[in-house]
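Box 3.1 — From sequence to structure: Isochorismatase-like domain-containing protein
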Amino acid sequence: MAYKQYEMRKRNPNPKVAALLVIDMQNYFSAMAEPILPNILATIRLCRRASIPVIFTRHSHKSPSDYGMLAEWWDGDLIFEGTPESQLMSELDRRPPQEDHVVDKNTYSAFLGTRLEEYLKERGVEDVIVTGVMTNLCCETTARDAFCRGFRVFFSTDATATSDEELHQATLKNLAYGFAYFIDCNRLEQGLADSAAISSPTNF
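Predicted structure (token representation):
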């Protein structure tokens, strides 16, 4: 993979202080989201097994007052609250609201204009695992923002996707260089297993 030359730092998330962010897996993005859905579901299952909280984000707009620059940049092609396109994909393994938190946002970063940072810090979260769509827009911006707010960022290479592989790889290069540790489903599974083994040493 092209990003490998920049991946100089490796680390596993600490399940005791981690949270999983599932970014914008909505019907609007289903064409690019469906290929990574098995990996998203596998990541969710691994995190649930390790008691890592799962947080879904949902991007939509209520009125022109919250369009910002997105309306100009995307020629008005926006996701509007209450439409089928704005809903999270039904295939996602979601639990009731008291278990799985949903963050509504109206720009690329899941932190801007939301209480996500406060929600995480109130729960002692230090590590955030980023998955979802689009790699180079909402996932990347959220990852960079998390880093700047003092969170340790773990970015999934196989549970994120965008419209173009070149854009996906460009984001991975940038994040590896300055912002995030990388995981994939296999690496996450092994890392969580290693953490569990360390936490529960065998007594002889």
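Summary of the box: The chain is about 35% helix and 20% strand.
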